[in-house]
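Researcher: Let's do a round of design. I'm pasting the structure tokens now; please hold your answer until I've finished.
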């Protein structure tokens, strides 16, 4: 089935009336869903020209037969002009898509379709205090169509504590207007402006149909400041009547209130944003439902269509799939959506069937009929045994689901007999259900939400959401009554507020489903008055007293949540289920004023937390590791909070990276002119401008084992806190180890698209980061034989293009060539360490590189010829070889080979006079990559390139059938077998080369974010050439970039949200909560997924430190925070004796922490002090017997010395004995010196690098000079001879 036929079939599934017409929107959507990687929306628009017609009642539609004729040639192959979907040529043409470059990480999270829909969103933000500016910032960075901000109120000095785009010079001027310039500078591709309107006019503005000249109305309104109740109700009702989503997000002191209303009908196309499953079909069988088979809803004896899949699925009964890539008669099923059911078998409990068993997994690859026969045999055996035993009742069985199989439910007009024709191929794509939801209005839900959701699930279960919700409603009623909001820290107003809240609760008490102060048990209303009313009343009064204040952490949190909620208007992700509240009462201090901080930028924070808190905040000494998206947010928060602003305080931020274009979509401290500059210094400059009091030092150093000469004991000992803003596990583990060693709190967080988490690690109280199991390792490995010979998914083609084509040709080959050119002797020496397959590959590639230079100097024509050679080999000859091998195997075995997931490939084409477009694309990208290797100028001009290719008249070399008939098995991941003689022949050839005549070359360093370097172009066309070989769908360039570049999805929204929550935990550290009783009950960790609404917005208490068993009576258990402290210079002997005495154990080994390859002390060396090796009366005396294990050659020497007379032979063996004796004495002397000498000196003697590594020696010496203690690990055995553990030892020797 050609690609054209696949597209046509998809179009017809939507064109239910068979009119031959589709809307342009449906057409674009289908092409996106089909993953047709070559055309963007602009290209599709141009192809639609001439095929559009206007029909009554439907507007303009596309006659898709004409469209398809433009899109495909007669053979059904796409007619994309070569290169128009690539990137590197645009560098010369000045057409690089900088907007796409900025958004590459966001695209990885949202996908192209959602990102395009976001450009249609016009957003109105009401309020430009902390939450408003945060929401605006995140939406502008997210590249929505437009953002309008409304806030005519005059800025106050207090606003500077939460609005980072206001300065002291803006006080007294309209907030929105003063923030506009900075907001606009965030993203030149998003329209941003101030909405000029009176408050009373706001509801009418929601009917505007041409917002900021976009030709569209508002999509979403976000209210971030309290408005009069009547205005809020009118805004919400107007939004609902115009299908405008309404979001309410306000920070009121230490409380955060969030509300979401997507109207009476909201369609969710993707509820969670998780990728759908694409599964390859390896077999299709028609079977009867009988015997041990269990399929829900399937009658006994009924025929079933059972698909066997190449990997396990995660589908449930009733889920929907779409079929694709079916062949022959079954091609009619392509694009069809069908329901599925799980396929299970009955198994006796006694059989203890384990599907993870290697043998069982292998058996499950057989046909379903064979699998059932095996399971039936097992079932009958256990049944017979049970019957023999005379047991009563029924045989106890369980259902075992076979997750590599699915039962497909066919629809009307679809015959199960069609599937008897199945031979091979086919894909199963899971289909996400479309969900339609209805939401209540703001007015109704403000009253009728009996137990509002809380971020802290325990608080929700206890009913804390009730008093927060009621307090918010009371605030609106208070303003309605008094014409103003309660003043900050106004005790009289707080009393009135409490009376109003109690009255409101009483009014609602008899309203079914209303929110009032009732007792909540496990999240369910009881109908009884709440307990502990005195505590609730105190909280309500506090709510009133600080209602007008904002905290930057909660503003960032709400701004992130609100911005992500806006994006859900596209139909991507699930909205929040209306109300979510958060309250962090512990941060509020019993204070009646802001003290000296009244009338300053810190007034709100001091009013809530107290003036003494501000004094501690200013004195902080903080180490912020990383200055990317997380780091920018943390720097913002620290600057706004006034941290590190007193004399002697310091904020040290370090990051080795430079700013890239792709950073600009979420690292909001940077702008286009900053690209190429250091992140740390650029960010420090910006936040210092916001708050000149900030004492900040920016470094460009990595933090790890290579920088301990700078980040030494003195450095770590001066800190109050380490704060991670990292994106990799290795660095996180290192900083955690430092915090464990120096006893520092660690704040940790991370994001992955819409998902985020945060952790607070407290010395002695919580588990550490290293106690966890997180890893950077790729969990999903694809069998190499699948990648090499039998791909069946687009992912396989991408992975092979990166692992084999790019890595081999652009990295490995030039590296090996340069190694030979620079030092042939060393090259051939290191070659021996490689496998034979690696040796052969290296030698063959070097020979190819040498051959390129045989005619003349390497120029671009030579690069084209090298690229053509690769084209021929990879997409023509390798395919011929494989087909030849497999067809021969099929003939000899008599069994079909090309079945299941094994697709019979077809070779690429070549015409020297009129090269195929895809071949030109490949040669263009590959030749330019070779040009870099050989330091030849790029040739980006396509016309000149095409002429050069055709002028060269490149012809396919002759091909002959290969003699080797080996074909890899499905699980054959071993290296390819090679002829040892061929390796030796290649070595001989290369050894004879005069390397002084060879040209220098340079290996590529893969860079995914530079569109001018041809890397992603090469990978994309190589991927799709291979896909074409195997009739696999082509991949979009963006998909290749994300997959091959291992791009981590990253969003401004989730980053801001999680960082805001961590800011709040930092405030608790400043308050000293970690030093108080029940400290763990005062901190929060977070695990949040903004894609799934209220389902995954969870705050919870940190996990207590893990108790490790020591196997010692003197210290039964310990934690990773614990250390054995030993002070003062002592000998190794004294150190060992001290530990043995303290723990009643035997010390077996002492070694540097993290380096068990060397030892400061080995117990086994004590025994060697009594060993003997000597010649006595011409005989070898070696005692004890263990000597012969240490020096095995002495066994032969002992025997021969007893037999040989004087002479040369005997002398040789005597020399062996003397050498061993000398070696033993050296061991004794070395041990004696270390054992009875200072421990610090012994440490240096074993840990210091050898003289052959002078640079490492110098670094070691510098690090040691800055240390006053040593970190040691000790291996012991207890009095029973069992292995035992103790904490790491900190030995302070000075």
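Researcher: That's everything. Go ahead.
Model: Designed sequence:
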């Amino acid at each position: 089935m050609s690609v054209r036929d696949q597209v046509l079939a998809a179009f017809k599934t939507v064109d239910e009336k068979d009119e031959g017409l589709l809307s342009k929107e449906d057409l674009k959507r289908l092409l996106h869903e089909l993953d047709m990687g070559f055309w963007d929306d602009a290209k599709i628009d141009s192809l639609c020209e001439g095929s559009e017609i206007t029909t009554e009642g439907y507007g303009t539609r596309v006659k898709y037969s004409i469209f398809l004729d433009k899109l495909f040639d007669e053979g059904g192959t796409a007619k994309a002009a070569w290169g128009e979907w690539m990137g590197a040529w645009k560098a010369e043409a000045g057409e690089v898509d900088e907007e796409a470059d900025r958004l590459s990480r966001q695209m990885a999270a949202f996908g192209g379709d959602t990102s395009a829909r976001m450009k249609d969103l016009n957003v109105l933000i009401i309020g430009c205090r902390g939450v408003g500016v945060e929401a605006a910032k995140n939406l502008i960075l997210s590249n929505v169509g437009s953002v309008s901000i409304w806030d005519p109120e005059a800025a106050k000095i207090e606003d500077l504590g939460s609005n980072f785009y206001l300065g002291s010079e803006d006080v007294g001027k309209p907030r929105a207007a003063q923030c506009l310039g900075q907001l606009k500078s965030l993203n030149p591709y998003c329209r941003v402006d101030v909405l000029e309107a009176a408050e009373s006019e706001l509801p009418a503005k929601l009917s505007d149909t041409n917002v900021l000249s976009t030709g569209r109305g508002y999509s979403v309104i976000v209210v971030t400041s309290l408005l009069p109740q009547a205005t809020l109700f009118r805004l919400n009702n107007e939004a609902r009547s115009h299908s405008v989503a309404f979001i309410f997000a306000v920070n009121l002191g230490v409380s955060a209130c969030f509300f979401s209303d997507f109207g009476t009908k909201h369609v969710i196309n993707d509820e969670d944003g998780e990728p759908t499953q694409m599964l390859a079909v390896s077999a299709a069988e028609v079977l009867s439902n009988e015997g041990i088979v269990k399929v829900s809803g399937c009658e006994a004896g009924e025929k079933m269509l059972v698909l066997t899949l190449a990997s396990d699925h995660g589908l449930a009964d009733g889920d929907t799939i779409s079929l694709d890539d079916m062949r022959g008669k079954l091609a009619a099923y392509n694009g069809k959506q069908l329901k599925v059911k799980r396929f299970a078998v009955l198994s006796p409990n006694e059989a203890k069937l384990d599907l993870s068993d290697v043998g069982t997994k292998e058996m499950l690859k057989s046909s379903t009929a064979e699998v059932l026969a095996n399971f039936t045999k097992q079932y009958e055996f256990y049944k017979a045994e049970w019957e023999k035993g005379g047991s009563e009742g029924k045989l106890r069985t369980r259902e075992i689901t076979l997750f590599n199989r699915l039962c497909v439910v066919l629809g009307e007009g679809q015959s199960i007999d069609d599937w008897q024709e199945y031979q091979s191929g086919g894909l199963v794509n899971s289909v996400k259900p479309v969900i339609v939801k209805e939401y209540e209005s703001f007015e109704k839900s403000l009253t009728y939400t009996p137990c509002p959701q809380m971020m802290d699930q325990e608080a929700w279960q206890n009913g804390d959401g009730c008093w927060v919700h009621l307090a918010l409603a009371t605030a609106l009623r208070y303003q309605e009554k008094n014409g103003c909001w309660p003043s900050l820290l106004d005790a009289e107003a707080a009393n009135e507020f409490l009376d109003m809240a109690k009255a409101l609760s009483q009014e609602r008490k008899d309203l079914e489903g209303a929110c009032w102060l009732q007792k909540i048990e496990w999240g369910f209303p009881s109908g009884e008055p709440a307990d502990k009313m005195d505590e609730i009343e105190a909280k309500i009064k506090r709510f009133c007293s600080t209602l007008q204040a904002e905290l930057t952490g909660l503003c960032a949190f709400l701004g992130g949540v609100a911005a992500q909620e806006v994006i859900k208007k596209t139909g991507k992700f699930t909205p929040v289920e209306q109300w979510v509240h958060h309250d962090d009462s512990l941060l509020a201090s019993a204070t009646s004023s802001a003290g000296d901080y009244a009338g300053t930028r810190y007034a709100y924070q001091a009013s809530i937390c107290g003036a003494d808190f501000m004094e501690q905040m200013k004195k902080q000494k903080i180490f912020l590791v990383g200055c990317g998206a997380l780091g920018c947010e943390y720097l913002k928060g620290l600057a706004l909070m006034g941290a590190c602003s007193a004399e002697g305080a310091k904020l040290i931020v370090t990051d080795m990276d430079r700013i890239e274009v792709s950073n600009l979509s979420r690292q909001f401290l940077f702008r286009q002119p900053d690209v190429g500059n250091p992140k740390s210094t650029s960010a420090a400059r910006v936040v210092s401008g916001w708050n000149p009091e900030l004492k900040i030092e920016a470094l460009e150093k990595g933090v790890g084992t290579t920088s301990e000469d700078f980040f030494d004991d003195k450095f770590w000992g001066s800190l109050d806190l380490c704060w991670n803003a990292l994106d990799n596990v290795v660095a996180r583990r290192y900083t955690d180890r430092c915090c464990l060693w120096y006893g520092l709190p660690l704040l940790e967080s991370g994001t992955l698209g819409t998902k985020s988490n945060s952790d607070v690690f407290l010395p002695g109280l919580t588990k550490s980061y290293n106690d966890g199991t997180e890893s950077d390792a790729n969990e999903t490995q694809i069998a190499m034989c699948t990648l090499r010979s039998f791909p069946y998914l687009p992912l396989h083609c991408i992975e092979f293009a990166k692992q084999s084509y790019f890595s081999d040709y652009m990295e490995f080959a030039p590296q090996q060539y340069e190694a030979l050119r620079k030092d042939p002797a060393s090259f051939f020496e290191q070659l021996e360490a490689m496998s034979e397959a690696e040796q052969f590959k290296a030698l063959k590639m070097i020979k190819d590189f040498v051959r390129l230079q045989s005619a003349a100097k390497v120029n671009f024509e030579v690069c084209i010829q090298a690229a053509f050679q690769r084209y021929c080999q990879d997409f023509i000859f390798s395919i011929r070889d494989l087909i030849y091998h497999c067809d021969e195997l099929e003939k000899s075995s008599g069994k079909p080979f090309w079945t299941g997931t094994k697709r019979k490939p077809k070779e690429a084409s070549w015409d020297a006079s009129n090269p195929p477009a895809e071949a030109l694309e490949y040669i263009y990208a590959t030749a330019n990559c070779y040009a870099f290797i050989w330091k030849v100028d790029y040739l980006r001009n396509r016309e000149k390139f095409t002429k050069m290719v055709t002028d060269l008249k490149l012809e396919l070399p002759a091909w002959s059938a290969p003699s080797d008939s080996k074909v890899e098995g499905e699980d054959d991941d071993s290296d390819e077998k090679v002829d040892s003689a061929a390796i030796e022949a290649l070595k001989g050839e290369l050894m004879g080369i005069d390397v002084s005549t060879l040209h220098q070359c340079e290996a590529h360093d893969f860079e995914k974010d530079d569109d001018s370097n041809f890397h992603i172009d090469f990978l994309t066309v190589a991927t799709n050439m291979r896909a074409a070989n195997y009739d696999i769908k082509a991949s979009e360039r963006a998909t290749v970039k994300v997959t091959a570049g291992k791009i981590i999805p990253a969003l401004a929204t989730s980053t801001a949200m999680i960082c805001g929550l961590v800011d709040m935990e930092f405030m608790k550290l400043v308050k000293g909560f970690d030093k108080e009783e029940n400290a763990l009950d005062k901190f929060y960790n977070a695990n949040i997924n903004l894609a799934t609404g209220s389902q995954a917005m969870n705050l919870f208490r940190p996990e207590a430190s893990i108790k490790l068993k020591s196997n010692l009576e003197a210290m039964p258990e310990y934690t990773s925070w614990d250390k054995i402290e030993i002070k003062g210079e002592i000998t190794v002997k004294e150190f060992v004796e001290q530990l043995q005495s303290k723990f009643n154990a035997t010390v077996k080994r002492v070694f540097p922490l993290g380096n068990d390859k060397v030892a400061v002390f080995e117990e086994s060396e004590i025994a060697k002090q009594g060993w003997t090796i000597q010649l006595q009366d011409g005989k070898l005396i070696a005692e004890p017997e263990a000597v012969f294990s240490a020096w095995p050659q002495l066994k032969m020497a002992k025997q021969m010395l007893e037999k040989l007379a004087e002479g040369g032979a005997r002398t040789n063996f005597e020399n062996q004995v003397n050498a061993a004796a000398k070696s033993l004495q050296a061991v004794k002397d070395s041990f004696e010196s270390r054992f009875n000498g200072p421990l610090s000196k012994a440490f240096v003697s074993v840990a210091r690098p050898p003289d052959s590594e002078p640079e490492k020696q110098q670094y070691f010496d510098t690090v040691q000079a800055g240390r006053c203690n040593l970190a040691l690990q000790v291996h012991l055995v207890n009095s029973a001879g069992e292995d035992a553990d103790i904490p790491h030892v900190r030995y302070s020797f000075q």
